[in-house]
Write a structure and sequence with these properties.
This protein folds into 6 domains: 2-105, OB fold (Dihydrolipoamide Acetyltransferase, E2P) (Beta Barrel); 115-188, OB fold (Dihydrolipoamide Acetyltransferase, E2P); 201-275, Beta Barrel (OB fold (Dihydrolipoamide Acetyltransferase, E2P)), CATH 2.40.50; 279-362, Nucleic acid-binding proteins (OB fold (Dihydrolipoamide Acetyltransferase, E2P)); 366-449, Nucleic acid-binding proteins (OB fold (Dihydrolipoamide Acetyltransferase, E2P)); 454-531, Beta Barrel (OB fold (Dihydrolipoamide Acetyltransferase, E2P)). It is 12% helix and 41% strand. It is built from 7 helices and 30 strands.
Amino acid sequence: MEEKNGIEELEKDEPKEAGGEGFAELYQASPSDIKVGQIVKGHIIAINPKDVVVDIGYKSEGAISISEFSDPEAIKIGDEIDVYMESREDDNGMVVLSKQKAERAVGWDMVISRYNEGDMVEGKVSKKVKGGFMVNIGVEAFLPASLAALRNFGNVNQMIGQVFSFKIVKINKPRKNIVVSRKDALQQQKEEDKKKIFDNLKELAIVSGIVRNITDFGAFVDLGAGITGLLHITDMSWGRVSHPSEVLAIGDKIEVMVLDFDKDNLKVSLGLKQKTQNPWESVDVKYPAGSRVKGTVVNLVPYGAFVELEKGVEGLLHISELSWTKKYANPNELLAIGDRVEVQILDMDKQNKKISLGVKQLESNPWLEAESRYPVGTKVRGKVRNLTDYGAFVELEDGIDGLIHVSDISWTKRIGHPKDVFKKGEKVEAVVLAVDAGNRRISLGIKQLSTDPWDDIAAKYLTETVLSGKVTKVANFGLFIEIEKDLEGLAHISEIPLAENEKLEEKFTTGCDLKVKVLKVDSIQHKIALSLKGV
């Protein structure tokens, strides 16, 4: 309604031209035939404060208001101008002339002969009127406020005097009215610019743009004319990028490479790292297996550290490659992000972009000398470093431990847990039983410090020998009975006389004394079988 009302207001206020069809006759054949409503040529013969006197070859001169001249200071006597004859002599005997109506008539004929609805035209915003603006395009045209696209102007008055491109949206020939739109002109220009950009786009071409938005997965780059391309986070750098904001900021002017584009859907994929050579192309030459290089720790994970050798090239330093002797639960016990470290290239997989790194390889492997330093049978002395259910770890030197298995603590005593025998930090003596340098293991024994007594035990406790003993443990399968210090035998439940429905734990208790007889001594398995029957 705003546009319609503005047009109607313009049509209502538009002065009706005298002479009707006189506008078609731009110049008379001879001065004697001059008629009201015609346009004739005249010469300025006088310039007064309020009007300009013009000679049109008529019997009397004509007067034109000085206000009809856009730049009164630029006119001078003798200038030739086109004028419109409004009426013959007035009370002062002067012909009434109009310069603006002549320009309007000439401009109208020029505009409608040159332009049609939908054409683009350039014009100057001359003034603000009700509902919009007047624009001089050779003739005054109406620009509705709704079609002015004023978003770029904080004050509408700033449009006055500005020259823009407009689109002719309506021509009313009977009323000699023209309606134009700057909004439509801008949109058309935008579409033309967009098409021009897409027509010129080529894959691998370098284009300029401005970063308009940043997300977790990338950045949107304005290429102009309303075309926005996506620069994905994986195409920003050959190196590690956790978030696009590490590389770009909103408003940055950047040059990017066109990776792909879809004219139909107006989608463009962009790349930044592709402007430089892929460092992985020559990585096998620069970092051969066995070479030593320096890098920067850029990320820590439970299983190791990622080390940047150069921008875009990272290798994995696995936690198992940190030390020959120490076992780390987490790489942050030794490393921190930002540390400069020297590493050795262990393996290179160029195709899958994987490099295996090591630190311990920079030092000699102490386990390679372990067999020669700790031969089997050697007596050693060390400190108990750790206790487990299955044995005690004894530190022989920095980073090298030996294990005393629970079965190698005593020849005869049944050991429930190593903590019953050892304490952390105490020093113990042991014998080297085996060395496995490949798996970094040394087996130690305490009982091997003395000779195996089981041959003597077998000779001492012959079958059917009756002994006195003390119950040390009641199990569901039998009784453990100590027959001398640190020497036990087992009376199986089948060798224990019990009444019907009678249970072991109800008849026997730990510490009670019993008479038993020896059934068998196994010196190989280190076992003594006992019986309560017939005793």
